[in-house]
Specification:
The protein is α/β, with parallel strands linked by helices and 300 residues long. Helices cover 34% and strands 29% of the residues. It has eight helices and 15 strands. Helix 3 packs antiparallel against helix 4, helix 3 packs parallel to helix 8 and helix 5 runs parallel beside helix 6. The longest helix has 22 residues. The N terminus is likely disordered.
Length: 300
């Protein structure tokens, strides 16, 4: 890092992390965060080192031990909206039109993810009327695509996205690798029927450590503001991303960008003091020109 960047670096971190505090002493337990690092154009950054990042837990600076390309397999749950209530029909036209675009977008996501990370595990779940797993976790693209080709619209039903998020988190928490993410695709306007408590859902994300990357296709006014707020909050809290588009055909490129970001994550290893058990929040700062997607939930 150049001397000019080093001079600016504390200022960037001060904005991101707030008032400075004393660094913790060496020693303790190594903890890992899996982060996506993007440039101003939303592309994954190829060079990212320990000089580029600072970690803070519960207001206390942590010592960064190492930064390296993530090598653990990533597990990604893909959630797709198959509900076709009257409002969706009015906004999107025939079911065949938007089902075709859903299949193309989701298939492209899995293809890109497995191209970059052949050992990744990806699952497929629909949430029209009920949260139903269509494809269990697999690294076999053909098997995944077979499930994609069975995506169908469900006329006259509401969606249960929050129920699907809860179920996906529970499934991810059982995966061996600590790299976990949920990619959701929902259609607006929609009749959300989930009864899940957002506070409990927040705890589900804390336990799984999954990031939420969510794209909403919005062709009308929001019918369920609660669901919208939940998606915003959890994308932010987990270090994921929330996107809105009007045309469903634009979803394919967004999901491919998600695949790039998730496949090319970094593992940031830092020291947690022995006496710092039960950390409640973690913050990650970096230099200007980069955006780090990191969970605000400390690693377990």
């Amino acid at each position: 890092m150049t001397s000019r960047v080093r001079a600016l670096f504390p200022l960037v971190l001060a904005v991101l992390l707030g008032p400075g505090v004393h660094a913790v002493p060496q020693g303790g337990v190594d903890k890992s965060l899996f982060v996506a690092v993007l440039d101003d154009n939303g592309r994954p950054v190829r060079e990212f080192t320990a000089d580029d990042v600072l970690i803070r837990e519960d207001g206390q600076d942590r010592t960064v031990v190492a930064v390296k390309p993530a090598s653990q397999p990533i597990s990604v749950a893909v959630l797709v909206d198959t509900a076709q209530g009257r409002r969706v029909t009015d906004a999107y036209g025939s079911p065949e039109e938007y089902v075709r675009d859903l299949r193309v977008a989701i298939g492209s996501f899995a293809k890109q993810l497995l191209l970059l990370s052949p050992d990744a595990q990806v699952s497929l779940m629909e949430f029209g009327q009920a949260a139903v797993t269509m494809v269990p976790y697999t690294s076999d693209l053909a098997r995944f695509n077979d499930g994609v080709n069975h995506i169908m619209s469900r006329p006259g039903v509401g969606s249960v996205l929050l129920e699907a998020l809860s179920q996906a988190n529970g499934d991810l928490a059982k995966m061996k690798s600590g790299r976990r993410a949920i990619v959701s695709l929902n259609l607006e306007p929609s009749d959300e029927q989930s009864k899940e408590d957002p506070a409990r859902l927040k705890d589900d994300f804390r336990k799984s450590g999954a990031q939420l990357w969510s794209v909403s296709v919005q062709r009308g006014g929001l019918k369920n503001s609660k669901r919208d707020l939940v998606l915003d909050d959890f994308a932010r809290l987990t270090g994921g991303q929330r996107d809105f588009v009007v045309g469903i055909s634009a979803v394919e490129n967004i999901l491919k960008a998600y695949a790039n970001a998730l496949a090319m994550q970094y593992e940031v290893v830092y020291k947690r003091p022995e006496n710092a058990k039960g950390a409640k929040a973690v913050q990650v700062g970096t230099r200007a020109g980069l955006k780090v997607h990191a969970s605000g939930f400390p690693p377990q």
